[in-house]
Design brief:
Strand content: 35-45%
Structural class: mainly beta
Largest sheet: 21 strands, antiparallel
CATH architecture of one domain: Distorted Sandwich
Number of helices: 12
Mean pLDDT: 95
CATH class of one domain: Mainly Beta
Shape: globular
Low-confidence stretches: 1-29
Length: about 650
Amino acid sequence: MAPIFAFRKRFTLQYTLILLLSGLASLSVMAETFTVSSPDGALDVTVVTDNQLQWSVTHRGKKVITPSELGMVVDGKPITRKLAITEHRTHEVDQVVIPAVAQKSSRIRDHYHDLHLVFNNQFGIEFRAYNDGVAYRFFSQREGDMQIDSELMELNFPAGATTLFPEEETLISHFERHYIPETIADINKKRFASLPAYMAVDDINVVFTESDVWDYPGMFLYGTGKSGFRADFPGVVTRATPMRGSEDRNQDVTFAKHIAETRGTRSFPWRLAIITADDRKIIESELVYLLARDNQIGDTSWIKPGKVAWDWYNANNIYGVDFKSGLNTETYKYYIDFASRYGLEYVILDEGWSKSTTNILAPNPDLDVEALIAYGREKNVRIILWTLWGPLDKNYENILATWASWGVAGIKVDFMQRADQYMVNFYEKIAREAAKHKLLVDYHGGFKPSGHGRTYPNVLSHEGVKGNENNKWSRDVTPKHTVTLPFIRMAAGPMDFTPGALRNARIENHNINHYRPMSIGTRAHQVAMYAVFESPLQMLCESPSSYYREPKTTEFIARFPTTWDETRVLHASVGEYVVIARRHGDNWYIGAMTDEQPREFTIDFSFLGEGNYQLDLYRDGVNTENFAEDYQREQRDVTREEKLKIKLASGGGWAGIVSRN
């Protein structure tokens, strides 16, 4: 992945020397103030070095992040107390990045101003100001190894700031959270959340997360009882023992007090905040991707994003066949036939394909995996295998080599449930080893993405989201939840929400059923997710038998690509609604979703080129208030002068495919 062009120039750093007097003493301490602004001048980052290091951020002159202390304790010593800056430099970067896998856009402008401060103790810090956000990271230039005892990050806001708080109960988590509306000052010191997290300062949005996390734990945000948060991290794991009754996937874990043991010369993770008064810009932001390290695996020509026929959501419940459905060869040939008929690239063999969840080199005796792989190859459909992380970790080099020798296309790794240093390193070593064997990776049951798609482009998706599978045991996945996700969880990167449910209901008619789940919201709400939700590996979660019974819906879904050349958010309000237009090649794909409130929008087609186009649309039917599966499909001609009014029912959706006549 290489930039097409790059432009760098020096620009003037403004800093002020401030004389601080302590009481009547004649001793003075010199404090330095540095500022760096976004290219458009809207965001200003101020950094003050004194007895401590602080940063603050304003948006068009309005305080957003108020003075907040930053620091680290390394080998028992704080690195940001009584600081002296030995070097400072600044520059501007304006370049275009071409991603190996176009999650949101096939050309990404990378434009920022950078402030680089070197301390007098072999550490330093770098700040970047973009038009849509700010970021910082520490770096070190020490010899040998070091122990990171703690990292200090305050994140303070003006009084009255609010949050949508993805609260956690424990550091052992699948990171599938609700977003709880709170006033930040009401969150006490015991409560904490995973990332990304959303904050609002009046009409200014802040989405805080991290990027380029390697050989280091993931961050959590803890309340302070004031209008701010502090960071904390899981410690280094000193003991992990199987938990009785679920030994294959759950562990009792003991953490040390220190958070990392790492090499002395390195950069640390980026801490970043998307900051904008325009809700649309949250979804369009590429900051997490841009701040990640570049491609580490070399050739990426073999990586093929695509859609997947998924088995676990529908519990292998196929019907209208003359064989017993289940975890057997006949059932998965049926999945392959379905995928082939509708042009889906992959079928996942989820839990149950192997002899046991711990013996993952031997197939279930009722499943001829190699025969299925060969059958799929004849049909242009490839196989992805599910695995628990623990059994894979014990023998990953041999296991991945063996699966590749069978002809497997990729792996879905599950139940990591941790974000400590060891687990972060597990993600990286599996991605790297999988790439050696040209295997795709989908991480489930674990933390959010932090730029993996740039560093390891074979990592196509992550869960870390309360997705459709929750319909099997809860009523958690409401339209309110699904229209919140694009503004928070999706800001971190691709999310494997697993859309495509065909059994749909309003919440008062919703029934929880593990084997025949139904979604909350309309059919069109689910269909619109194929344009709204980003995942280069995108699932079709429903039973193939059900899709066969709904050919108009299935054919429509199957036409959606999973990568995008261009993304434009047309209408958006955090947690209320979203309307997105995405381009793939010459065609445009539009998705609109609303919460429980019915809404009307006008789609301005001025993003189209000249000439005539055909719009194939999928909308809520007139009877969705009583029968959520009701929908209508229509075709009509449009041009770039068209302004089309659309209506969405409560919990509804709208989708369109625009192609040249």
